[in-house]
Amino acid sequence: MAQDTLRCFMEIKEFQNIMRELYAHNDRRRGKDKTMLWLVEEVGELAEAVRREDEAGIREEIADTLAWVGSLANLYGIDLEEAFLEKYPYRCPTCGQKPCICTD
Ligand SMILES: [Zn+2]
Q1: Per residue of the chain (104 residues), what is the pLDDT tens digit?
Q2: How far is CA 77 from CA 14, 40, 68, 104, in A?
Q3: How far is the CA of 90 from the centre of ligand 1 (A)?
Q4: Rounded to whole angstroms, how far apart are CA atoms 49 and 57?
Q5: Which domains does the chain have, with CATH numbers?
Q6: How far is the CA of 61 from the centre of ligand 1 (A)?
């Protein structure tokens, strides 16, 4: 346990596996639509924390948002690491550059 708390990085696959181990049974029972609603609710809470410039709240809500993205990906059998690299293969998918040269 101490080793876990001292680690300072985690691979995306590991994150997704942990989410699966912790919550797959709850995610399946809740279903895709309700899991999506929870994700939207967390994004709303993140927006509220950003609006208040509540740095501790932003930290907490951004973690919750990531967790719900993991749950949703698991329900759809999507490998987040693969999906991300397909869309963002170390360069901007719009301009094809690194760093991006798009204006926004
Ligand atoms: Zn770009």
Answers
A1: 455 556 667 899 999 999 999 999 999 999 999 999 999 999 999 999 999 999 999 999 999 999 999 999 999 999 999 999 999 999 999 999 999 999 98
A2: 15, 20, 14, 31
A3: 11
A4: 5
A5: 2-87 (1.10.287.1080)
A6: 27
Tokens coding 64: 């919750």
Residue 100 Cα to ligand 1 middle (Å)? 4
Full DSSP string of 50-82: HHHT-HHHHHHHHHHHHHHHHHHHHHTT--HHH
C-beta neighbour count of 21 within 10 angstroms:
9
* pTM for this model (two decimals): 0.87
User: Helices 55-75 and 80-87 meet at what angle, rounded to 10?
Assistant: 100
